[in-house]
């Protein structure tokens, strides 16, 4: 068994979860925040048999979009001169995915 951890954008969460559920994958949704942008994102946990990993990954990939986000981040250089925020543009997503081996799995 494998555990897929997929970090996706909040905007894509509904579609990704619906598509996974329709394909009979069970999903747990966690509300998370990215360390760089400090903005909300969604982390999905889905435990799947090893032979089903590719099918689940395809669903996640097909339903996760890349987007450009604008953010203002604290700037160390700017702070020295009294300017605290630096505007930046970053491309976020589609999905950042980790696939882990599951040693043991129980449902009590
Ligand atoms: P954030 O950490 O908020 O990062 C949002 C986007 O900002 C990233 O998009 C990337 O394009 C950019 N970015 C991140 N760190 C950067 C840096 N040090 N310098 C310049 N740009 C940077 P994605 O790569 O698509 O990542 C989206 C979210 O996925 C991340 O949100 C984070 O929550 C998660 N993530 C990505 N890679 C990860 C990793 N290796 N481990 C854990 N979480 C990860």
Q: What would you note in describing this structure?
A:
By secondary structure, this protein is an alpha+beta fold. It has a domain at 2-66 and 94-101: 2-Layer Sandwich (Alpha-Beta Plaits). The chain is 26% helix and 41% strand. The chain has three helices and six strands; from the N terminus they run βαββαβαββ. It has helices at residues 10-22, 53-62, 76-80; strands spanning 2-8, 28-33, 40-48, 67-74, 85-92, 96-101. The strands form two sheets. A four-stranded antiparallel beta sheet has the order 2-3-1-6. The longest helix is centred in the first third of the chain and has 13 residues, at 10-22. The protein is elongated and about 55 Å long. The model has no long low-confidence stretch (mean pLDDT 92). Ligand 2BA binds at residues 7, 34-37, 39, 41, 90-93, 96.
Q: Quaternary state, please? A: single chain
Global structural class: alpha+beta
* Number of β-strand runs: 6
Strand order, sheet with most strands: 2-3-1-6
What is the percent of helical residues? 25-40%
Count, helices: 3
The second-level CATH architecture of the domain at 2-66 and 94-101 is 2-Layer Sandwich
Bound ligand species: ligand 2BA
Shape: elongated
Order of helix and strand elements from N to C terminus? EHEEHEHEE
The biggest beta sheet reads: 4 strands, antiparallel
Mean pLDDT: 92
Detail the poorly predicted runs. none
In the CATH scheme, the class of the domain at 2-66 and 94-101 would be Alpha Beta
Distance between the termini: 17 Å
Radius of gyration: 17 Å
Beta-strand portion reads 35-45%
CATH fold group of the domain at 2-66 and 94-101: Alpha-Beta Plaits
């Amino acid at each position: 068994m494998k555990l897929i951890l997929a970090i996706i954008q909040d905007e894509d969460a509904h579609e990704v979860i619906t598509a996974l559920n329709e394909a009979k994958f069970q999903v747990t949704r966690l509300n998370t925040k990215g360390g760089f942008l400090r903005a909300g994102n969604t982390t999905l946990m889905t435990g799947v048999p090893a032979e089903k990993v590719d099918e689940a990954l395809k669903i996640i990939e097909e339903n996760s979009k890349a987007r450009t986000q604008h953010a203002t981040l604290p700037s160390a250089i700017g702070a020295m001169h009294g300017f605290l925020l630096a505007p930046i543009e970053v491309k976020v997503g589609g999905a950042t995915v980790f696939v882990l081996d599951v040693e043991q799995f129980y449902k009590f």
